[in-house]
Design goal:
about 525 residues; alpha/beta; Rossmann fold; 7-stranded mixed β-sheet; 3-stranded antiparallel β-sheet; 22 helices
C-alpha cells in the first residue's frame, strides 16, 4: 500500500464508540482478584483516543487528570471540543506518538490505556510506546492494553491479505482496466469485502477446512465501513500472541495482572474441567495464558499490566473487596440470569443471584459488605457474592460505583458534558453514551432518549412534552438536509410511537438514570 493510501485510511473518521475498560474504576475487581495493591489514579493517559468519547467521559466522570493524543487531527479537534464543553481540563493533542511521547511537559501517570491501537501500529511505534511506558508509568501504575491475538485470528490472516491486495489494485474489468485510484475509499473497501465473499462462495478448500470463516467474512458486509477501514485496511495489522506481547512489555518492567474482561475471572463459564486442571498446573504465566488462549480460541485480549506489582495480604484483600461498591443499572424485573462465556451460554442460579439483586433493588451504591449483610440469611456466601457481582458487572446489570465524595466532585462536569451531548442529538446520532458520575463510566443512551433528557433540561416536565420536543427535533433535522440520514433513522417514529417511548422512558428508565446521576 502506498503512503498516500495509508494516510487516506488514517484520515477516515473512526467510530464514536466507548470503552469501559479505560475507566480506572474498572481496575479494582481484576486487581483484587489477582491479590494486588490498587493504585490511586490521579493522572491518566489514553494513547490513540479516536473521537475522544471514552477519554472525555472518564475525564468528566472522575477526579483524574487526563492526557492523551490521536494523530488524526479532526479526531483531536472533536475531542478537545467535548473537553471544552465539559470544562474538564483534559489535555488532548493531535500529535503522533513520537511527538507526544517526547513531550517534556507530561506528568508521570498512574494509568495508561490503549484500546485498539497495539495491533494496528508499526513495530517502531510499538517500541516507542514501550519506552514511554517504562519511563512515564509510575511504580504500581497500571497499563490497559487490548489487541488482536492468536490463535483466534490465525485463520483470518490470509483473508486479510486477500482483501488488502484487492483494495490496493481495485477491481479489474474484463478488458484489464482498473478504476480511477481516487475512487471513494468506502467503495473500494466494500468491493474488497465483496471479492472475499465471492471467493468463499466458490467453496474453496481453505474454507472447507475452516468452516466458520465464510460466515465471518459474510458478516463484514454488514460492518461500518469506517470500522473496516481501520480494522482491516491499515498498512500495519499484526495479531500477536500473548507471548510476543509479554516479551515486548517486559522491557518496560510490566507484569501481567489479569484480564480486563470480567468474564475471564470465572473459569467455569469458559473452561472445561480438563482445561481448568491443565492450566492450574502451569506455573509460568506466559505459558499458562498462551495455553488458555488455545482453549478458548481467543481473538481479542483485553488485559491489565502492572509496573512493580505489590501483593496484598489476605486480610487486606478481603477488606478491599468488602468495601467495593456497585449499583444496579437495569430494571430489576428485566434482568436475565444468563451469561455467555467461551463455553456458550450459562444459566446463573436463581437461589444465589436473586437475593443479591434484591439487595440492590433500591438503586443506591451498595458495598459488597452491605450485600453480604442482606443475603446472609439465604445462605449466600461472600465468595459467591464476589463471583456474582463480577459476572453481573460483565453483563452490564451492575456498575462499579465511586465513593460519595468522588460522585459529588464528578457531578458538575458530568452534567455539562451530558448537556452538550444531548444538545448534539438535535442533529446527530453518533455519540450514544452519556457519563454517570456514580460509576465514572459511559452509559448507552440512544438519540431519542437523549432528546427526552434535553427536553427536561428545557424545563419540560411531562412525557407528552418530551415526545413532542423529540419529534420536532427529529423532523427539523430530517428536513434540514445538513447531512444524510443514517439508514436506521430514515423513518421517523409516529407520534403515537414517540409518546409511548416517552411514557416508558419516564416509568422505567428515568428512575435509574436519576440514580446514576444522569437525569
Amino acid at each position: 500500500m502506498s503512503e498516500r493510501e495509508t494516510s487516506s485510511i488514517d484520515e477516515v473518521k473512526y467510530t464514536f464508540g466507548y470503552c469501559d475498560e479505560l475507566n480506572p474504576l474498572r481496575l479494582k475487581l481484576p486487581l483484587l482478584h489477582a491479590g494486588l495493591v490498587l493504585p490511586t489514579v490521579h493522572t491518566a493517559c489514553e494513547l490513540g483516543f479516536g473521537q475522544g468519547v471514552s477519554v472525555n467521559i472518564h475525564a468528566a466522570g472522575s477526579a483524574a487528570q487526563w492526557w492523551g493524543t490521536d494523530f488524526n487531527l479532526s479526531h483531536a479537534n472533536f475531542a478537545r471540543q467535548l473537553a471544552s464543553n465539559a470544562g474538564s481540563q483534559a489535555q488532548l493533542f493531535g500529535e503522533s506518538f513520537a511527538d507526544f511521547c517526547g513531550r517534556d511537559d507530561l506528568p508521570d501517570f498512574d494509568f495508561i490505556g490503549m484500546h485498539g491501537i497495539w495491533s494496528w501500529i508499526s513495530p517502531e511505534n510499538r517500541a516507542l510506546i514501550v519506552e514511554f511506558i517504562g519511563r512515564k508509568l509510575k511504580s504500581g501504575g497500571v497499563l490497559y492494553l487490548s489487541y488482536n491475538t492468536q490463535p483466534g485470528w490465525t485463520a483470518m490472516l490470509p483473508v486479510h491479505e486477500l482483501m488488502q491486495r484487492h483494495f490496493q489494485i481495485g477491481p479489474v474489468s474484463a478488458t484489464g482496466d482498473r478504476p480511477d485510484s481516487d475512487e471513494p475509499m468506502h467503495r473500494r473497501i466494500s468491493a474488497a469485502v465483496d471479492f472475499a465473499r465471492a471467493v468463499f462462495a466458490t467453496q474453496p478448500g481453505y474454507g472447507l477446512v475452516n468452516p466458520l470463516l465464510a460466515e465471518r467474512v459474510d458478516a463484514l458486509s454488514q460492518a461500518d465501513p469506517s470500522y473496516l477501514a481501520h480494522e482491516y485496511f491499515t498498512r500495519d495489522w499484526h495479531p500477536m500472541s500473548f507471548l510476543q506481547v509479554a516479551s515486548s512489555l517486559d522491557a518496560a518492567g510490566l507484569t501481567y495482572a489479569g484480564s480486563a474482561d470480567y468474564r475471564d475471572l470465572v473459569d467455569e463459564i469458559n473452561l472445561t474441567p480438563a482445561q481448568r486442571d491443565l492450566l492450574a498446573n502451569i506455573a509460568d504465566t506466559a505459558l499458562r495464558e498462551t495455553a488458555r488462549d488455545f482453549c478458548v480460541n481467543r481473538s481479542l485480549r483485553r488485559d491489565y499490566w502492572v509496573k512493580g506489582p505489590r501483593p496484598l495480604s489476605d486480610a487486606e484483600r478481603q477488606a478491599a473487596l468488602h468495601a467495593h461498591r456497585v449499583i444496579l443499572a437495569l430494571p430489576r424485573a428485566s434482568v436475565m440470569l444468563k451469561v455467555r462465556g467461551a463455553l456458550g451460554e450459562t444459566m446463573l442460579p436463581e437461589a444465589t443471584y436473586a437475593p443479591i439483586l434484591d439487595a440492590l433493588s433500591s438503586y443506591r451504591p451498595t458495598s459488597l459488605a452491605g450485600i453480604e449483610s442482606c443475603v446472609r440469611a439465604q445462605g449466600v456466601t461472600f465468595a459467591q457474592i464476589v463471583e456474582a457481582v463480577t459476572l453481573l458487572v460483565s453483563m452490564g446489570v451492575l456498575l462499579n460505583a465511586q465513593e460519595d465524595a468522588q460522585i459529588r466532585a464528578a457531578q458538575p462536569l458530568s452534567a455539562k458534558l451530558n448537556a452538550a451531548i444531548c444538545e448534539r442529538a438535535r442533529h446527530h446520532e453518533d455519540i450514544q453514551f452519556l457519563v454517570s458520575p456514580v460509576s465514572g463510566s459511559g452509559i448507552l443512551m440512544p438519540r431519542v432518549a437523549q432528546l427526552f433528557l434535553l427536553a427536561r433540561l428545557h424545563h419540560l416536565q411531562q412525557p407528552a412534552q418530551w415526545a413532542e420536543f423529540a419529534e420536532a427535533a427529529l423532523r427539523a433535522d430530517s428536513q434540514s438536509g445538513r447531512e444524510p440520514a443514517a439508514p436506521q433513522s430514515a423513518a421517523l417514529p409516529s407520534r403515537a410511537d414517540m409518546a409511548a417511548k416517552a411514557h416508558r422512558f419516564a416509568q422505567v428508565h428515568l428512575p435509574i438514570l436519576q440514580a446514576l446521576g444522569i437525569a
